[in-house]
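go over this record:
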Amino acid sequence: MKLEGDIVTPQGVIQGHLHIAQGRIAAIAGVPVDSSRAGEGGRPVLLPGFIDVHVHGGGGRDTMEGGDAIEDIARRHVRHGTTGLLATTMTAPVGDIEAALRALGPVCRERSAQSARVLGVHLEGPYISPGRLGAQPAYAIPATLAEVLRLSEIAPIKVLTIAPEMAGHLALIGPLRDAGIRVQIGHSNGSYEDGVAALNAGASGFTHLFNAMTGLHHREPGMVGAALAHGEHAELIPDLLHVHPGAIRTALRCIPHLFCVTDSTAAAGMPDGEYRLGEHKVQKCLGGVRLADGTLAGSALTMDQALRNLVQQLGLPLPDAVRRVSTIAADYLGLWDRGRLAEGAWADVVVMDAGLALQRVFVEGEEIDVVADA
């Protein structure tokens, strides 16, 4: 199979063609062009498939439902260009988390047709601060290494969000890192000093930067200050509701490997109305998702819109925006054959027009029916 157009590669934009064989990129050929001219003359723009490490739901389904919910979620997000994702849990009784993980395990091992690849699990709770729940239900508890490892045997935990200031958590970061779990700081009432200590202990990054953590003050820098001063990686939700564009620009200048997530709920890809988020009922209205008291509760964002926001609202050059929605997250997860258009990588490809409207999606060489979710 051959795809022609302006190809966004790690080395720059190439006008030419991309050849797919046996689910991987066999060759890329063409001539370099200025990235600002990508898509001129009606040429398609070829991008690496998006990688989203924070997905609670989509298409009216929620990860915590168990059953076939994750397959519906993965089929909905792939129609918006997300070719790989981490299924993300909510804070809940441990038994409920186990039930959700039992449904996730088989899907992590084998991708269904017309679906994004479920790359593993992001466990966003219950090991968070009771004082910084955000929209998480009130089931926060301290973590133990044995419990986390037991849960990861049910379905592979790739990212774990914790509040490092909770008793015993700092000592867990190193062993969890050694077990291959990336520990992110989030839903935390911790101080700047707590954040620095967690990073020194081996924490990898920050969960939805700015949201559900202590903010920046010039005499109390808080967890946000620790991220901006010392962080190498952090998630950020670029729906322009969770974080002001000025704060996004600040983070882009401070954190070298800032990457985008949706924190999407069941409301993603759906009309306004009531949806489930864990045990909560949430309302989608005017582009946002909120609890009854007005608290933001995840998002309705999809990754194609995240890319458009970065380029069209924040002014990022297309290659840099692509890194933020694809390459950095893939590298963060240690997936050197995803999140980039390069020879030997999986043929996870998003085709857009010059206005970044999505036209076609391929996952591991399989073309996805995107018309059904137009």
